[in-house]
């Protein structure tokens, strides 16, 4: 037999190849559609049918948006901890004249993410990149007990030097400083990442990478693109920052970005009041997730004696550790209930079918829908995929504002009517809905809405409106590229 196989190895190899090819195609049809959106299932099946030998192993590595078993078990502990400690944060009642759909959104958020609606908060916006870093550094220097830092990307460079100097100063005088940063989101900026770690170590600051890329450390392969994309800073449980900005230079210390003149435009929010305890609790769960340490209750949830403002706020966490796509459900709830106006700002706009339908439906029923995106992109696939949606949006009446190059509009926020704002780290793309751990804040109050409108006006002054005639005139090859990237973006 062995001799015959040796003499006919070409025939044997060909037969084995086609048997394997057929088995992988059949397995794909059986396995891929299970618990998956039709669009994503079709995209994976297309990849498997096109080249099974490559497509099916890729599906096994990247086809499931879930943590490995040990991490899932740990996440269950985190979620229970979050629910128990959230009970210590008192609920606030909405004003009786707010729309019923907004009351429904509050209940939805509480059911999905555990956090209550809190009142008597204050919030300020900051859209200047360097100023936000310097203001955060100034707040850090006021710390007397704890500083909690969590950012997707962190690196020590000339822009962030003041921020890290502030962390070192308070750590040297005995303040507990805890730092989390996403592993892949930071290590890919190696020189400034290494400088940051050396700086933190030199001052005895405890720090951990989030979602470290160690494929088999938890007993199973963990797909490397499951990331922690949150941005949080909490000082003494009294002051909290969150939004879209990372702690790195606005060109991300990349030679290609510097050569192109790219600079990121961000929006950050500074909070005071009871809502900061919710932000601190979210940090504590991520800290436990990465370090195994449970922070003392008095360190996390603070009393509500301080009532610095009038805003009602609710934190909405989301990510692969949650059963439902919390941020997607919130956005859809708000879009379907909007009556007058939707303004959405997102650097990466690759919505799933439900969100796309919600926006188009809102525009067609007379809601003034305005979408802010960047004129140019920093991620080839996402940039071209999002452009594939523009025709249908424009035809429905959505106004698309292109933020002028060479800036990248990286801010992430939505305003609905004069009722509510949602702002945080979540993009309006499939990655943020399924793969990334995100944090969004829902804020009520017409005073804060007025602050948001000022920011929107600034961004509008730096943008130009895309017209349907202009878009239809784009080259055919560009249109084909956009549509191809849209198909590839569904493979999640």
TrEMBL record:
Membrane topology designation: Multi-pass membrane protein
Keywords for this protein: Cell membrane, Lipid biosynthesis, Lipid metabolism, Membrane, Phospholipid biosynthesis, Phospholipid metabolism, Repeat, Transferase, Transmembrane, Transmembrane helix
Gene3D superfamilies attached to this UniProt entry: Endonuclease Chain A
InterPro entries registered for this protein in UniProt: Cardiolipin_synthase, CLS_N, PLD-like_dom, PLipase_D/transphosphatidylase
SMART domains: PLDc
SUPFAM superfamilies given in the database record: Phospholipase D/nuclease
Compartments, as annotated in UniProt: Cell membrane
Domain (PLD phosphodiesterase) ranges: 224-251, 405-432
Domain of life: Bacteria
Transmembrane residue ranges: 41-62
EC number from the UniProt entry: 2.7.8.-
Keyword Transcription: no
Keyword match Transmembrane helix: yes
Name of the featured protein: Cardiolipin synthase
